[in-house]
Amino acid sequence: MDCYLGIDIGSVSSNLVLVDNDYNLVQKIYLRTQGNPVKAIREGFSIIADSTKRKNIFIKGVGTTGSGRYLAAVLIGADVIKNEITAHAVAAAHLYPDVKTIIEIGGQDSKIIILRNGIVNDFAMNTVCAAGTGSFLDQQAARLSMNIQDFGEMAALSNQAVRIAGRCGVFAESDMIHKQQMGYPMEDIVMGLCEALVRNYLNNVGKGKRIEDPVVFQGGVAANAGLRRAFAKVLNMPINIPEHYDVMGAIGAAILAVEYMQRSRTPSLFKGNSFILEGDFKTSSHECSGCPNICEVVCIKRDREVLAFWGDRCKKWESSLSEKQGSGLKVV
Question: What is the model's pTM?
Answer without folding.
Answer: 0.83
